[in-house]
Amino acid sequence: MTLIVTFNIGGGASVITTDTRRIMNFFGKEIEIKDNKKNKIKKISDYTIAAVGGFEQIGDFVIKEIKREGIQDILGIRLYLNRLDAEVQKRYRRLISKDERTQIIFVGISRNGISNVLYYLPNEERLEKRIIFSILEEGVCLVNYARPEEFEIDNVINEIVIEIKKGIQSHMSTEEKIEFILQGLGYMHLVAHEHKPDKISDLMCYAAIIKADFPENIFIEGTVKLKEEEKSE
Q1: Which of 7, 27, 182, 193 makes an SS bond possible with 15, Cβ 3.0 to 4.6 Å?
Q2: Quick check: 210 and 174 in contact, CB under 8 A?
Q3: CATH code for the domain defined by 4-225
């Protein structure tokens, strides 16, 4: 499984952070994939970023098709997924199971400066539950996260989210807000890693889209090592 966190400031910025651990559930048995440093965040365009949890084959196919169509913002992706879903269900029917759920989370800021969030959940039985779309009002903060099952520290994580929201001050520049948010989310990832070290890595990947005054938004990305390696004596 994985930990994916999205933090959005309506009309200002969209942030995604993920860990790098890849664990799949095969016939009720969890198997860790060896490549544990692969970034799960995908840049769609200057307006949209996405993260994939679950089966990468499904996520890679969906994102490849979106890029092939030249779709750049979430409004367009929402419409396209209504058509693409039938192909996803047909092509990956064996992977779409309740044992290992796949989710693709899209966040971003459209050309007109509106912040949007879109979830694509191919395991859901009904189409209206597979595609979940929301629009953020100016300045409103929205935080969501996907995490492993049996995650007993939801209350702690929620408290961290509350503290991050409280710490964002109106006088901060957007860049200062992003730096503050990433520090808070880094702490969240560290707490989650220490709680589930076998399922959540101590390497956090991040990407953000920041609204700019010129046509293209600002895009930043990077990785943060949350825990220093213990030195052997």
Answers
A1: 7
A2: yes
A3: 3.60.20.10
